[in-house]
Amino acid sequence: MPILMQGNAAIAEGALRAGVSFYAGYPITPSSExxxxxxxxxxxxxxxxxxxEDELAxxxxxxxxxxxxxxSLTATSGPGFSLMQENLGMAVMAEVPCVIxxxxxxxxxxxxxxxxGQGDIMQARWGRHGDAPIIALCPSSVQDCxxxxxxxxxxxxxxxxxxxxxxxxxxxxxSEGLELPGEVTRSERSRPTCSPAEYxxxxxxxxxxxxxxxxxxxxxxxxxxxxxxxxGFSRSDPETARKKNLHLHRKLHDRVEDIAEVRYYGxxxxxxxxxxxxxxxxxxxxxxxxxxxxxxxxxxxxWPLHERRLAEVAGSARLVLVPEMxxxxxxxxxxxxxxxxxxxxxxxxxxxxxxxxxxxxAIRDSGGEAR
Amino acid sequence: MTRxxxxxxxxxxxxxxxxxxxxxxxxxxxxxxxxAELGTFKELLEEHPLCAGCGLALSLRLTLIxxxxxxxxxxxxxxxxxxxxxxxxxxxxxxxxxxxQNAVATGLKRALSLRFPDRAKDxxxxxxxxxxxxxxxxxxMHSWFRGEKLTTIMLDNExxxxxxxxxxxMSQLGTVLxxxxxxxxxxxxAFPEVAKAAGCVYVAVxxxxxxxxLERSVRRAILIAREIGPTYVQLYTPCPTNYKFKxxxxxxxxxxxxxxxxxxxxxxxxPEAAAYIQQLEEAKG
Lengths: 371, 285
Description:
Number of strands of chain A: 16
Oligomer: heterodimer
CATH superfamily of the largest domain in chain A: Thiamin diphosphate (ThDP)-binding fold, Pyr/PP domains
CATH architecture of chain B: 3-Layer(aba) Sandwich
CATH topology of chain B: Rossmann fold
Shape of chain B: globular
Number of strands of chain B: 7
CATH architecture of the largest domain in chain A: 3-Layer(aba) Sandwich
Structural class of chain A: alpha/beta
CATH topology of the largest domain in chain A: Rossmann fold
Largest sheet of chain A: 7 strands, mixed
Largest sheet of chain B: 7 strands, mixed
Strand content of chain B: 5-15%
Order of helices and strands of chain A: EHEHEHEHEEEHEHEHEHHEEHEEHEHEH
Helix content of chain B: 25-40%
CATH superfamily of chain B: Thiamin diphosphate (ThDP)-binding fold, Pyr/PP domains
Number of domains of chain B: 1
Radius of gyration of chain B: 19 Å
Order of helices and strands of chain B: HHEHEHEHHEHEHEHHEH
């Protein structure tokens, strides 16, 4: 029996069932419900809930908690996500598993606090200085909010990296049916099997993820945001930097097929392919309903991008359309990946979601290309 | 930023909205008005979208009436309930980010002193308790450490009201709020004491239940900031929406909290600030 639930509540529920044990956050619309539910429920489950003084502190606190072994979570929105970027870079560099919910509102800056946007797509990927690859997931329904939160914790531990869950405000504040599973698969941290004396916190064969010990255990180790080698201690020689940066990149991009989830709805060889994510993907599915020539490819994972699968599905297309609630972000990635046919964008950055009719009209208006 | 800016250009008298014409004719610019003259002039804030009974809205209105030179004032605000009212305020104002207000004000004040070396330009920061004491603490404290000649006014409603009522550092110990369902776990920050320690030469605590006292605090804070150094005014502005009392009870809530010892009007002047105020009062006769 499905139960009626809000997207943010489903995120909180998913996190609680996934075994989150530490939450630190700061109030911000439209994500505050996640914190409010955590405040009510986490302490009763033996977890720790903390309201911090700002988003810098919230992000820093979940890094600390994760290094002490907790499954940790924070939730925020645009302005807070901007403030978190420096610490997010620290989590990438020190390979600290953690989950960050960024409920996307309309920007820039304080923007439209209560209205939806999808303008943080490129920020999630490139918002930090230096190459700092990350995993970003994008749910499109309340069920998806729950499922992808559970998945976020699994990916964070498996790949020892921060995972950003990026619902837009519509999905986060939408109430619809949620089928709660009896049990969920919980993330497992890969712990060292060697003796404490032999432990090196960043040592692993190429492409593998180094096991992570916990602070407070007999495994004594050092973590730094500076460039470091396998031992965790700072080193600034080019070979160390090259190896570390390649490792951070390759541990995600070489395993993209294990990480990236792409959902395709439509005919086997679509003439028109709509590539969308979040609530816009649902508008797209409504827009192409009954159209035997058009399909929708939903990016449930934004980063890393499953380029091979995208190129494959788009192979038959005469037109690729990318509707998004920004002035053009993912469309540039699609133009890079799809070279054989036109890739059109359909953009809206006024705090209003894109309607199915707008997408249907864009397909009709493309005329010769689409038909 | 003088009265000249609030003049209607020739030929436009008929097309300007009546509210603007009224502001030009009956506004408080260069008139030295205060709360005693309430009702005799066009106020800088009359209509706003804040809740009925909002203690912050009333305090903001009284604060604006108390500005010694509205024509030479720039207000820097931050995200929060007050930022919803600022677009309706007839004084230059900036809605900066959430917490950076004292840093923006610093740049503004320094640049104004370069551009107008012979004219006092008042930069007044007006922000909520979350913006001042939590997220903006760093920029607030460092503006005080550096001795910036700014006035910082906290509209303290003891909560994050605009996001739906979460605890702030200024909420009272034990208060149940949305992100504090078991009650807040630490004491209200003694921010006036922090201000003194950080270098404020004038610190006052007031509330809109005593408009004359509020006016004196704001006026002194701005006059002292012009000449001597950073000043801080903390206004207790209860929130009927999130503290769930009747909008008509705002002022009685202040009195009750005062009786309970949870709010205490206060005023501190450094010796230098006290001497300056005495000098101003003697000059006035």
